[in-house]
Amino acid sequence: MAVTTQKTTEYTNATADPVVNNESTEYQGRLRVMFFTHDQDGAGDATSSVAIGKLPAGRVRVLLGLSRMYCNWTTASATLDLGWDAYTDGDNTAVAADPDGLIDGLSVDTAGYFNMEGALAGIKATGGTYVFQSMGGVVVRATSQDTAIADGDDLVGYIVYVID
């Protein structure tokens, strides 16, 4: 075996002659924060959900490893899924809603602070990120699939993403 010196795809593009432009979501993009606060108003049965916010239209890379939340869903054995509502992608094609496309079954049985990276292999393989490309933006939604959400339960945090 030999010692190797290699470049990432993005750095290879930046140092090519002529330069190959990277997407701003991959190289020198701007960080944005979508802060959210939710206090459950009335009890909600299992599969109740909270629309956290809407990411802007265009190409957006969500940095789940930098995104955090405080969750106080007080029902025993509570789990949280994080996903998105249906939207139209950059090619004007409908994309189906995926209630657990970002996080699937995060245990929030005990109130506390949580990283949003989750354990999905597809998210891990992209460095804890997910790219959306949409015509009109994407609504991000948290869902309690298995248990009720009690009156007064809290979900507060922020999603960090790259755009521009």
Q: Structural class, from helix and strand content?
A: mainly beta
Beta-strand fraction estimate: over 45%
The level 1 CATH classification is: Mainly Beta
Number of structurally distinct domains: 1
Q: Look up the CATH topology.
A: Jelly Rolls
Number of helical segments? 2
* Rg over CA atoms: 18 Å
List keywords for this structure.
164 residues; mainly beta; Jelly Rolls; six-stranded antiparallel beta sheet
Q: If you had to describe this structure to a student in words, what would you say it looks like?
A:
By secondary structure, the chain is mostly beta strands. The chain has one domain (30-163): Sandwich (Jelly Rolls), CATH 2.60.120. Helices cover 7% and strands 46% of the residues. The strands form 3 sheets. Strands 1, 3, 4, 9, 10 and 12 form a 6-stranded antiparallel β-sheet that branches. The chain has a 4-stranded antiparallel β-sheet with strand order 2-11-5-8, with no helix packed on it. The protein is elongated and about 60 Å long. The model has no long low-confidence stretch (mean pLDDT 93).
